[in-house]
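Note to self: the last two entries modelled the partners one at a time, which told us nothing about the interface. This time every component goes in together.
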Amino acid sequence: MQKGALNVNKIRKDFPILSRKIKDRPLVYFDNAATTQKPLSVIDAIRDYYMNYNSNIHRAVHQMAEEATQAYETTRQKVANLINSPSTDEIIFTRNATEAINLVSHTWGHDNIRKNGRILITELEHHSNIVPWQILCKKNRASLDYIDVDKGGYLDMDQCEKALHNKNTKLISISEVSNVLGTIVPIKKIVKMAHDQNIPVLVDAAQSVPHMPVDVQALDCDFMVFSAHKMLGPTGVGVLYVKKDILEKLEPFISGGDMIKEVHKYDTIYNDLPYKFEAGTPNIADVIGFSAAIDYLSHLGMDRIRDHEFELTRYAMDAMKDIKGITLYGPLDAKNKGGVISFNLGDIHPHDLATILNDHGIAIRSGHHCAQVLMEKFDLSATSRASFYIYNTVEEVDIFINALNDARRLFRI
Amino acid sequence: MSEDIYREIILDHYRNPRNKGSLPNADISIHDSNPLCGDEIDIHLKVEEDTIKDIKFEGRGCAISQASASMLTEQVINKPLNTIKDIAKEDILENIGLMNLGPARIKCALLSLKVLKLGMVKYYADRDPGSAKKIQDDSKLY
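The predicted structure of the combined assembly is written out below.
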């Protein structure tokens, strides 16, 4: 692992896409909370698999199948190391974080959320951490409770404590970092509070694992989900971590090939963990690509990535504060948030703003960010969102600020 | 470029929308939204002898969606209801002066037309289910 600030100029050379032009201007990619760009090493790893050892995994004994199996399982080990999982048995590959939450709602949720049970989530959640629980609650005649978010973007911890004391609360499912406001949620404290009442905790780490050190044993959470594509990896790969004592009791989610040990006419013996939860041929190539992404991040060091994003966020928010007509949402202290800035500029609709910024070569996200519950709370239909990653620079933030001022002039604000 | 999109006429209709508001005793009220950006449009129609005697829209969203709704209401007020079926997407784009919108933003421009056409179909369906099918088939819903 390296020391000191990130060498961003060197990093940028590893990302071929960053040299492309948008509207004759250099691309400024500020939509990293949606998905991140991929370094050449990830693209090469996928290509190498298809070019040199493309085979199905876990079954055949020929050499290429062994190579593919080993590459696939090495990724699992790297994921376990990254989040400090006690073993690889607790790491399940899914299609994305959304599917990982669905796996939990359909298996653990189906068996443990009974009539009159309550599931606790927050107003910060992404739709992926709302809709599966709504469906489960409707099916099992349970209820969904929300922890409020205040105007500053922080959770109401008193309300959280109170809800956790409700004897019917059976699960809390919560984001570690808000994908809209960037709020860093005090997960460790919440896990402690929940476990005091014997309530398990699912952590949606889609916006935290890519950006900061995360340790499942230190947090002591019961479930964790995240997506590879938000951390330099390919699309189509998600991760579910489940504590072993819980995982051992779970029934399968998707069933079929590869998740079995023996299949007889009317009965089946399931495979060992974690394979019991990976039915069918998985996304082998992209899991192997994900391995290169984890290597890339580990080489930089998650602490240094966090520091880099913190500096960019602080710099950007300082400059944005002075723009006439701007409203910033969420925590105003960069220390308390990830590299995500949601904002509006005067009466310019975020979609119009994104169109104007696109003419400057800048990619931002505009809309409800799959968090309509939060938007309703703030009485907004949409916001604009800039989000940073390892390859973004202060110079890019300057281009962004200039473009915002251009938009302001165009709309005569 | 954005200077071409956000011309005076768009900004004018965005900031000073025509026929915006509710319409008590409307004969048809219809709502739709664009999941891409959350644009929302409600259109209310007062119909007398198959003529649009009054039209109001409510909504929130980007300048393109709101300006195009505002212009559309001006275009159809006091016109026979069944002429709505002949309005094509090109008419809307010409109306707002944006012929080259990309696939994402074109949905913003056409949302109000979609709502208006749904409203027309609903009006006939409520009164004459047989003819509604034909109108729906004739209607150039994209």
